[in-house]
Amino acid sequence: MMLISVRPLFVSLIAVWVFTSFVAATPVQISARSSVTTLANNFTLAALNNTLPNANSTGAPLVLGSGGAIDGESFQVTSTYASYPLDNFPSLGLVGGNLRAFLNDGSWHTNASAPLTGDPLGWGTSSYYSSPASTAFSAVSVVTTGFPVLAVNGISGLWYLCPSDAPVLAQNILYFNTTTVPSHSGVSGASPVECYSVTVNMVPL
Ligand SMILES: *[C@@H]1O[C@H](CO)[C@@H](O)[C@H](O)[C@H]1NC(C)=O
Ligand SMILES: *[C@@H]1O[C@H](CO)[C@@H](O)[C@H](O)[C@H]1NC(C)=O
Ligand SMILES: *[C@@H]1O[C@H](CO)[C@@H](O)[C@H](O)[C@H]1NC(C)=O
Ligand SMILES: *[C@@H]1O[C@H](CO)[C@@H](O)[C@H](O)[C@H]1NC(C)=O
Ligand SMILES: CC(=O)N[C@H]1CO[C@H](CO)[C@@H](O)[C@@H]1O
User: Any bridge partners for residue 138, and if so which?
Assistant: First the structure.
């Protein structure tokens, strides 16, 4: 767990003001914060409801769910473990703004992409291809919560969990900056699915 005492936080806040420009978001419960692009420890992700009651202060565990494949590369979307009960990537890392996922044997073939408005937090996995990973991720320490929280381009307050109404493989998926997603029910004229705002905790392993 990342604990911050008041004095180093104050010093690093000054550093943040001097060296970065924050995009104004609508942060929840934030009194003071600092941000890093590398974490010393491995972690998992968990989603905490911002508006609804939570079962605990850690949140619902998130995993890399199925997001399709092409020849030589597969894609993953960040899903709740409750909706995709298979954890192929039990350990994540944040290094220089790269969000990385590791297989059980510790091997690394998976990077996250920085999501745009309306996109899921998606990942690409390949042993054949190599593309430079996004460097837009960071961990923000919020004094009022116990864990660092995930941010993209400095923004930690725009994550939404969107339930799926698909008849099969109904994964509840983490999206960036959208409050609804199109229906996957296959029913013509079905209403869009409502999403809810979450904070994404980075839970140390
Ligand atoms: C917290 O609650 C979620 C349900 O939202 C549960 O899946 C998870 O295992 C709980 N985590 C801990 C650490 O108790
Ligand atoms: C958020 O709250 C809703 C309603 O209580 C619940 O259905 C959902 O599972 C919760 N999600 C998380 C991530 O705790
Ligand atoms: C993941 O990102 C690193 C750093 O940019 C890169 O060297 C590596 O090839 C990427 N892996 C894949 C599978 O694209
Ligand atoms: C979020 O989406 C709204 C429109 O839906 C857009 O105006 C805003 O710039 C987006 N914010 C970010 C940080 O992408
Ligand atoms: C900081 C970081 O990412 N540490 C490690 C996380 O776990 C993998 C393998 O399980 C290591 O390769 C990383 O160095």
Answer: 151
